[in-house]
Design goal:
alpha/beta, Purple Acid Phosphatase, chain A, domain 2, eight-stranded mixed β-sheet, 11 helices, disordered N terminus
Length: about 400
Amino acid sequence: MARKRRKKKNKGPIIILVICLIVIGVFVARRFSIDNSGTVNLSKINEDNKIVDDIDDDKYENKKITLTATGDIMFHTSQIKGGYDSQTDSYDFKDFFEPVKEIIESADIAVANFEGTTAGSEYPFVGWPRFNAPDEALDAMKHIGFDVLSTANNHIIDRGKIGIINTTDKIKQRDMDVIGTYKERPESRILVKDVKGIKLAFISYTYGCNGLEQLLTEEELDYMVNIVDKDKIAKDISDAKEAEADLIIAVMHWGNEYQRSPSNYQKDLADFMLNNGVNIILGSHPHVIQDFKTLDYNGNKVFVAYSMGNFISNQRLETLESDYGREASQYTEDGVIINFDIEKNGITGKTEITNVNFVPTWVYRYKKDGKFDYKVYPIMEYIESNEIDNYTKSRMQRSYDDTMFKMNVE
């Protein structure tokens, strides 16, 4: 009896499957590496899809920094006198800022608006209406840890062209950066800072200069001071993107003095900048705290501080009440330090604001040795101090409550 032949199995699909697994295995082996502990690491394929011999593990780690910002730094005449030592014929303002030094200097990068000039001793050292502070004012800014000073504000032309040039030079001589004004036409109006692998681009503009624009020629005004101009702002944002900035920060001098709510002009300009790619707006000029908002633009978390108030000045209840009333003048004592936690994803390259916190500040003024002395207090660290009387504490508490009321207003 003849045996039945057994049908041969079709091994084609199996062979194809094996080949596919081998190909996938080779791809995975090239894409990933496994160390001795069995941990899977990113592969030896770089961005150009080429094999590299060594993996730069640091390249794929998330990068984190803190950006700290605050509002108007102004030196009125009584402050200048307060920092003067007649025995040595010299000035020293560092002690004014000692209570906030640790906060500012702990940031990876810190920025503020310096409102005024350091034009030199050939001009009187005075405050309003045409500011000129001793160079030691900048020494104090450096001492407490500021890295970037915005000088695009309505008082930058108080001493004409020489005031702009000297102020710019003296800031740079102290290894701080300047944004918003220039002694000669710049190649670009943006300042790009690489901070621990995160690239920040700063731009700065002012609404105007108190009518003193006429002290400059039309050409000088065009390049020496950044006056608000949407075309220029759009160009600067474009330049920042071309420079591959991870975040764009705009420091804006705008709004109405002593008004605690932003104007329609501020809102419209903020919307324009945020829609075009700005991530953080830091406002100054009103000399009081205005609304702060965290918003979503085009799927990205952005932040706008319409006004950060006064970091230091002689504007306060005692000096302004007779002209502006108690309701408006008391808020000029208020300021805030904003701390931004910023993180760049090592894999995707996306940079985000991960956290924002606020440190309300208050300017304490008191008589010492026949002249006024000043202290910028982070309120909650000093409100229980035994050195401060109950009346002063009540003013600090009012300041804290009113400032926090304006944080992240919807």
